[in-house]
Amino acid sequence: MPPIKKPTPTLKGLFVNSHINRLREKKGEEAVKELERRYGSRVVFKNLEEIPVREEVRIIELCLALSNPAAAAAPDATELAGRLHYENFSQTGLGQVLLSSMPHTPQGFKTLVLNSGSIGRSVFKHTNFSTTENNGTLVVTMENTDYPLKHFEGFFSAWAEQYGLQPGSVSSKAEGTTHRYTISGF
User: Fold this and answer.
1) How far apart are CA 68 and CA 161, in angstroms?
2) In 3D, which of 129, 135, 182 has the Cα closest to residue 160?
3) Distance between CA atoms of 100 and 104, rounded to whole angstroms?
4) How far is it, in rounded angstroms, from Cα 129 to Cα 126?
5) 0.90 exceeded by the pTM?
6) Where are the alpha helices (DSSP H) in the chain?
7) Could you read off the pLDDT of 156-182 as tens digits, one per residue?
């Protein structure tokens, strides 16, 4: 019997728009036109439209290349794209509300990450999130994800560092389309 095909992971257009809007703020309308040229079509998404995650990844990577060409060419460009993703998310209305709900301390970060499953379910469709804690270490599991493994390592690293954890607190491991992120240093 052939394996069951999993549905395509998606997220709302408003989150994809956040990357485009940040590029526009940082680099201007000409950069957005260049983004469209490189992307191969217009980058106008309805806020509630379901966009495949792989398209968001492509747009983030192009935004990184347009805002910081040296970073986009670096060996760790996928992780740097994840850091840019966090930076852009933190400037959205949802990001600002969530990130201001806890003190910017390791314990505040831990509390937010322990609730990342419900956050993830409100942002993504067809991707399952869960977080477990074991002896002061958090493990975030993302099932059926189209993000490159190192992308969310960069996302979680940027977030952890903003909340006072040391660089290198996040590691990652993939098992097919399931990614596990281990966060330590509490």
Assistant:
1) 21
2) 182
3) 8
4) 10
5) yes
6) 13-27, 29-39, 53-67, 69-73, 77-90, 93-99, 106-114, 116-123, 149-162
7) 999 999 999 988 899 999 998 899 999
